[in-house]
Amino acid sequence: MRRETTSSVWGPWLLGWCGVLVLALANGTLRALVTQPWLGETVARALATVILLVALTGLVWWLHRRRPIPTARQAWAIGATWTAMTLAFEFGWGGLVAGLTWSTMLADYDLTAGRLWILVPIWTALAPAVVRQAQRRAPAAAR
Q: Are 118 and 71 spatial neighbours (Cβ–Cβ below 8 Å)?
């Protein structure tokens, strides 16, 4: 087995974040056009959060099977980087392009209002390390 270099590990995982972006945008579109008119805003947002968490897990599982992260430290670093990129995109796009106020953007993180979105950046940070550990423990046939 060849030893992975830092660039050979990071390259695919940084590109993989683009997959996260595509999943999030598709999920938001589905929420806005389908589930929110049907279920109402609060339920649709909660459902969209669950859908994105599942999709994110699937993406990380798939990517890790193809480009395993060699160390736990790298997995945590990738999760932290993905989270920083996600938050930078979310608040950058929301504030600079969509013209949303900080209070509007931060409202999605208010658990007391039934908003579960905070679970997305938390899971984005954890997923690479959790999936890495799960795949290391899983029998070869299950991977």
A: no
Q: How far is CA 34 from CA 27, 73, 107, in A?
A: 10, 40, 22
CA gap 130, 56 in Å, rounded: 12
Q: CB–CB of 59/23 below 8 Å? A: yes
**Rounded distance, CA 93 to CA 69, Å?**
30
Chain segment 68-119, per-residue pLDDT in tens: 999 999 999 999 999 999 999 999 999 899 889 999 999 989 999 889 999 9
Find where tokens 């992975």 sit.
Answer: 4
Q: What is the pLDDT of residue 1?
A: 43
Structure tokens at 10: 């990071």
Q: Are 56 and 120 in contact (CB under 8 A)?
A: yes
- Cβ pair 76, 129 in contact under 8 A: yes
Task: Say what the alpha-carbon torsion angle 12, 13, 17, 23 is, to the nearest 10 degrees.
Answer: 80
Tokens of residue 27, six digits: 């999920």
Domain boundaries, the chain: 13-137
Give residue-wise pLDDT tens across range 44-67: 999 999 999 999 999 999 999 999
